[in-house]
């Protein structure tokens, strides 16, 4: 049976490991610098989260996930800047950028659709079979596994032949 989803899972797990590794390294640096001055902990922590979101944005295969990661980049880097400078009106920068991202959501998502993002995993829709009420004495059709269209068409042809044979015997 054809299953293309396993390749995406391996790639996604590898990128998740890289993102987690970068965050853990930034956390270790933040804890180390905390020993010298407590003022460095939160800026480095949020910088690590911002870098992890940036890598998530670059490697996301789904454009909506990439767009959400872009919001994370803006907010984590903005919070890092606010904790580094210590002047809280700077929080208006990530607020403003977030408003701009929200206003430009449709064009940004449109560019992402036409860009280098691979298409989402395509699943074949099940074939439609009209509802037929159960009649006493009628046997149920055999189980038909889910698969690519060629297998489904062959299975439907076989099922139709069986039904025609049963109707000829009745």
What report would you give on this structure?
By secondary structure, the protein is mainly alpha-helical. It folds into two domains: 5-114, no CATH class; 138-170. It is built from six helices and no strands. It has helices at residues 5-34, 41-59, 63-85, 92-103, 105-114, 149-169. α1 (5-34) runs antiparallel to α2. The longest helix has 30 residues, at 5-34. The chain is elongated, with a radius of gyration of 27 Å. The two termini are 36 Å apart. The model has no long low-confidence stretch (mean pLDDT 76).
- Counting DSSP E segments of at least 2 residues, the number of strands comes to 0
Note the main sheet: none
Element order: H for helix, E for strand: HHHHHH
Which stretches are poorly predicted, pLDDT < 50 over at least 5 residues? none
Query: Nearest-angstrom radius of gyration?
Result: 27 Å
- The coarse silhouette is elongated
Structural domain tally: 2
The averaged pLDDT comes out at 76
Q: What is the number of helices?
A: 6
Oligomer: single chain
Structural class: mainly alpha
Helix content: 55-70%
Gap between N and C termini: 36 Å
Topology (elements, then pairings):
Blueprint: H1 5-34, H2 41-59, H3 63-85, H4 92-103, H5 105-114, H6 149-169
Keyphrases for this structure?
170 residues, mainly alpha, 2 domains, elongated
